Amino acid sequence: MTNAMDNDGLSRHANAIAKFPPPLRELLEAELRAGNKITEIGAGQPAAMCGLRARLARPVTTRPRADSGEVTFFERYGTSHSGEFCDLERHFFVLEPPKEYQAPGMDAIREELNARERAANADRFRSGAW
User: Are strands 83-87 and 92-95 parallel, antiparallel or unpaired?
Assistant: First the structure.
């Protein structure tokens, strides 16, 4: 175990991390080695009370954000987290931080609505259609 891992939470959260199923435990350990940090670890939403969740400070970079044989991935757009990696029973979760929400500007909304209207009316106003 390296000092960087000690400082970033592996030793501090070792007892809790040990309870995670091996694929999620390996994911957490890889993320900590890569410099990510655990901001919270505990039971409750979205984890069942018999499981645990670990929230990371940054998105996962050490594995694809996709399902594998023993881990499922869900893309979320919530205020508590974005991506979630979980075991097949959905008892243990590794959660990514929420993404910043960028509200679209009114000009973009207006242009999209105008483009839809033009497309919907294209046949009606085509020359020779009457």
Answer: antiparallel
Nearest CA among 14, 9, 94 for reference residue 46: 94
Parse the chain into domains and list their residue ranges.
3-95
Structure tokens at 76: 């979320």
Torsion sign over Cα 7, 12, 16, 22: positive
Q: For residues 15 and 126, what is the distance between their CA atoms, to the nearest angstrom?
A: 70
Q: What DSSP string runs through 35-93?
A: T--EEEEES-TTS-TTSEEEEESS---SS-SS--SSEEEEE---SS-SEEEEETTS-EE
Report in angstroms the alpha-carbon separations of 24 from 47, 65, 84, 87. Answer: 13, 13, 11, 7
Cβ neighbourhood burial of 63 (10 Å; 0-12, 13-18, 19+)? middle
pLDDT, tens digit (0-9, with 9 covering 90-100), for 64-87: 989 988 999 999 887 788 899 999
- Here the tokens at position 46 are 């979205």
